[in-house]
Every structure is written in C-alpha cells, then in structure tokens.
Amino acid sequence: MPNIDSIAEAVPRRTMILYFLIDTSGSMAGDKIGSVNSGIKETILDIKEITNPDAQVKIACLTFSNDANWITQNPVAIDDFSWSNLEAEGITELGEACEKLNEKLSTKAFMGDATGNYAPAIILISDGNPTDFGKYKYDDSIAKLQANNWFKQAIKVAFAVGDDVNQEILEKFTGSPETVISIHNKSQLQKMIRFVSVRASQIASKSSSIKESSSDSGVSSKQQEVIEALKDINIDTEANDADDEYEW
Description:
Helix content: 25-40%
Structural class: alpha/beta
Distance between the termini: 62 Å
Order of helices and strands: HEHEEEHEHHEHEHH
Radius of gyration: 18 Å
Strand content: 15-25%
Number of helices: 8
Number of strands: 7
C-alpha cells in the first residue's frame, strides 16, 4: 500500500510561469545588462532551493530592442533552466514585446499546461523610452494586454533603471506606481531582481488559478500582497544601498 509521501508526489502540480521582459537596447549596455545577467542567474538558484508541493515554477524570457524575441521557445521548468548572458544594442521596441507577450498569455500557447496554471508573475526591466519605429505602437499594445484576463490577474512589477525611464509608461504596464521600482545602481538592480522575483514567485504559486473566460475582478489580491511586500523590500534595499556609488 503506498504511503502518504508517495501519494503526494504523484499528485500533479499546477504550473506558475515567471515571465521576464528585458530591455536589451543599446542604453542597457555595460553595467546595466551585466547586473541583469547576474541578478537573474542568482534568482534561478534561489528559486530552485524553494520547495513548493503545490506548484511547478517555469521560466519564460522575452527580450526587446530592435525587435522582440523569446529566448525560451516554451516555458522551461526551473530545475532545467540555465541562463545565458544577454548583450545590449539597438532601440526599444516595447510595443512588439507587449504584442508577443499577449500572444503567449493564452491557453492555446504558454498558459495551456495540462495540469493547469496559476496566474503568472511578470517582471519588466527597462531603462528608457519605448520607440514606435516598428509596426506596433506601445500604447495600443499595452491596451491589448490590459484586456487579457491572464494579464489582469498576473503579478506585475517593473524596474525603472536610471533617470531616463518614462515612469508613466511602466506604471501603465503594471497598473500602479507602487509596482514600479526605481533603480539607481548596479548593486540595487541585482538585489531587487532577486528579492522581487523570488517573492513574486512565492505569492503567485499559492494564488488561485483562473480561466481566460473569467471576468475582470479588478486588482487581484496577490498583486496587492506584492505591493505590501515591496514596501518592506524598498525600505531594506534603500538602507543597504545608501552608500553605493551612483553608477548609471
């Protein structure tokens, strides 16, 4: 007769996807993209150490500069994921990134796991103004995302790297100023990627799953939980980085 532990292991876990949308335009070159690479590598190790009997965490990463490209053709289980360093050059096609994210936030694409999906966590990292030189306009593309039920219920956090960021656009993406974090140096960027990614993954993995047909219920409770967590994280990080050299 099987014991309780073996029965628990046999129960399929739902999937929670952690999405990274990363600006790899030329202005991110140097310390900025280096800090992103280091921060995500450390984040992956941190998440791998977390035992979660209810959810399998997967990673999906989309970069955007002259165009937007998935570096993960499908979400990858955290235990199988390894990070390859990104380089930065080109412009900032946020509109195309939003279009491609919207396409994958569907049960016909990335959200169609047979075991079911928790609403995802989405982290956007950018240091400038989006460009509209391509076929997609960022305002229209963000509006499409805002109509997507998976996006509505997702945890959404943006990192505003440096002083040249259009804060209003990032706030429009996440839905509130409380979920846009200003980053002033490379140490802070690495720390915040780790803290926010791990905390968002933990919160998202214990939240209820949704279906694409679900109605808009406003700001989800898990997004509010992240907002509360960010208040403490910001206080701690600002204190720790108070003496860091301003590097951007």
